[in-house]
Design goal:
The protein is mainly alpha-helical. The protein contains nine helices and three strands. Helices cover 60% and strands 8% of the residues.
Length: 343
């Protein structure tokens, strides 16, 4: 068996890997709560002044935002808690339940809006003080837009589905308000009062579409969908860079769990390596992977490269590591002949 060469030692200390712990994001949930309370007050005032069912439907959607923000606060607090004897892997997936709950709440709000719009279409009413009411709506929309951008940026930075869901919902609310603004303005100009009911109906349909999207995303997370292509590519590049005549990899799997990212892979190393050497190799690889994909939890399973049993546990579904699918999967003898040397 060829004696593996020891990787050259770097004279500079390695850059420390980022922390794997979940970040406390509850301050963003409180921001969403305060924003929802303010916009409900503004939109309710606009509805009271004008009597527009379109504005009332917009205020109802902001009520959904408030309930969703409270649910998000609870979910983020639960997700930030560490592992316990009962929840040994932590509670990062609590965020997916928040997104699912928000989707369900959206459906209820949409149903109420659709019923109200149908009633107003059958019994149209004239609008009052439209100009002042629309100015109040503009103020509420600006507030919602600013908070939506803050939440989505924080959610993507920290990989929080709860914050992204809240931000998307608020942004949808902004566009809904723009539609209501234009529609109610047209009602005032044309005098066709049933248009107010049509606008409210369209708001309800738009809310249903948003709810379907949120439910779909939360279900994918609960079913352990793989990491995105960017993260998977970063992982496979590192594994290929560590491949040599003596070290290969197979069985790569990845998944998301709220803010956390997980992967597991099998490492085939020379039989002559000591446990200490294999552990050191795996530890250094773990640190490199985490620097490339912050927040990654890597489970690295070390196996002897010449043992046929090392190739009996390859999963049926895995992320391809090599262009040549035989590398890391063939018999030890053929592997020794075909695996290219390290670059």
């Amino acid at each position: 068996m060829t004696t593996p060469s020891t990787p050259p030692e770097s004279t500079a200390p390695a850059e420390p890997a980022p922390s794997r712990g979940s970040v406390d994001l509850t301050r963003y949930a409180w921001l969403a709560i305060f924003a929802a309370i303010a916009t409900i007050a503004l939109k309710a005032a606009a509805w009271a002044m004008t009597g527009s069912v379109g504005l009332l439907s917009d205020a109802a959607e902001s009520g959904v935002n408030l309930v969703a923000a409270v649910v998000a606060l609870v979910a983020l607090r639960v997700a930030a808690q560490g592992a316990t004897q009962r929840f040994l892997y932590g509670r990062a997936k609590a965020e997916y339940f928040s997104a699912a709950a928000e989707g369900a709440i959206i459906f209820v709000a949409a149903a109420v809006i659709l019923v109200m719009s149908a009633d107003r279409f059958i019994h149209p009413r004239p609008l009052e003080h439209v100009g002042v009411g629309l100015l109040v709506l503009v103020a509420a929309s600006v507030l919602n837009g600013v908070v939506a951008v803050v939440l989505m940026r924080a959610g993507r930075r920290h990989r929080s589905i709860t914050l992204v869901a809240d931000g998307k919902h608020l942004l949808t609310d902004v566009w809904t308000s723009v539609g209501v603004l234009v529609g109610v303005g047209l009602v005032a100009v044309t005098g066709w009062h049933r248009l107010d009911a049509v606008i409210a109906f369209l708001v309800g349909v738009n809310i249903i579409v948003t709810g379907i999207s949120l439910m779909s995303e939360s279900i994918s997370g609960l079913l352990d969908k793989a990491l995105d292509d960017e993260d998977n590519d970063a992982i496979t590049r590192i594994l290929r860079s560590h491949t040599s005549r003596d070290v290969t990899f197979h069985g790569l799997k990845t998944r998301e769990a709220g803010q956390e990212k997980h992967m597991n892979v099998h490492i085939q190393v020379p039989d002559t390596w000591t446990v200490k050497r294999a552990h050191t190799y795996a530890h250094e690889l773990d640190e490199e992977l985490m620097r490339a994909v912050p927040g990654l939890h890597a489970e690295l399973h070390v196996e002897p490269i010449s043992d046929p049993a090392s190739y009996d546990d390859i999963p049926s579904a895995e992320i391809p590591i090599y262009p040549d699918s035989s590398i890391g999967r063939t018999s030890p003898d053929r592997h020794r002949q075909d695996t290219p040397p390290a670059q």
